[in-house]
Amino acid sequence: MxxxxxxxxxxxxxxxxxxxxxxxxxxxxxxxxxxxELWIVEHPPVFTQGQAGxxxxxxxxxxxxxxxxxxxxxxxxxxPGQLVAYPLLDIKRSKVGVRQLxxxxxxxIIQMLAKYxxxxxxxxxxPGVYVAERKIASLGLRIRKGxxxxxxxxxxxxxxxxxxxxxxxxxxxxxxxxxxELGGPxxxxxxxxxxxxxFSQQLGYQHLVHHQGLAAT
Length: 217
Fold this sequence. Notes:
The protein is of the alpha/beta class. The chain is built from five helices and eleven strands; from the N terminus they run βαβββββααββββααβ. Helix 3 packs across helix 5 (about 190-205). It is globular, with a radius of gyration of 16 Å. The two termini are about 30 Å apart.
């Protein structure tokens, strides 16, 4: 029987590398009774390059560090004012396929934005969420031992100019957009609160347990 409890871990502002390694550690050490978790975080400026990433998509990183990571996808940008959410889920236990998980994540963002009368949508050939052909949320996952880590990044109220230093997700000239411009959530906190609701509904979690900060290891 699937455990319908989701643990929400509010990390606040936290550097990318330490959160990434904590995700790896949680995934490597978890067992069949380990709880599913959703980590909510905001990162300082960083470019992350996925396993399929090509160096030519990093145009002019300048003073922003580039980190090679173990998720799928190409290069993206994280920075202040962006909501980052990492679902650490045992998808083997819950019998959710990878493509199904991607769809659930996309739909949780789409439903959340619909509350603000924003008409967002997904694309079959380009993971993420879009509004009028501009990208508002990026998505990149890694599955290990039947469990997911990495996740989604939703632009809320941030400086979008660093995206022009890369080809976002490998697409030259892809224009980005953010919630604040569209009348959506005005802060990362508000966006996080709303996303937790729609995410838990999409994945069928009925009980939420809240934590502050990374778990002690």
